[in-house]
Amino acid sequence: MPLSPLPEENFNNILSFLNRSTLHKCLFVNRYFCKLSIPIIWRNPFGNSCTNGLLINTLLKCLNEDEISSLIPYGININHQTPLFEYETFVRKFDHCYCVIRILSWLPPMVDQYFIIQKLIDVIYHMLMRARSNMKEFVIFLDHESYNLPDISNVTTYSSGIANLKYLEVEIMYDIRWQNTIKFLSILSKVCNGIVKFKLWILQTNKEIITPILDIIKSQPINNMST
Asked: Domain 1-41 belongs to what topology?
């Protein structure tokens, strides 16, 4: 039976049951298999088995001219090539901690790379929000060695990228450095009203962090939310 008569949404459902190794093999079957497999593989790019170099290099190819220009002062020069797909639009789960780990593994060892890493985090966030990738899951884990979330303007400008968030996980060792994270949480209650699962762990409670978290909970469909 030829593949074309099979509705694409049905074929997507079939592919979603495959493990990642099998999905990667589907990329090389033909263009049709490749086109349907890529969005599934990129739903959770930072949590998959893709090598750090390939993942970050592919994401950097998705940057626009302004985002690329913003990296130049930090010594990051990108030989921009048009990617085969708009990979950034397929992301449905973003894990802040794993994003940082991928960047750290991708960068060569440097004496002082804090600001370079933070800038890369900023442009990746900006790209994903700009792409309005319809994020469904967002995971934040911050401890004393973590890197902060970017400036809140990325979220307020492109809030539709997270408006349909369903799952939120927040684990924070409270620290004054996390002001951007607090601002991010503050905006979620205004743009997200469909979160049905919220996982929360905070080492030290403080009004500054508790207030936006309570606002998020109050703005969600409580009858359906699990914590």
From this structure: Monooxygenase (1.20.1280)
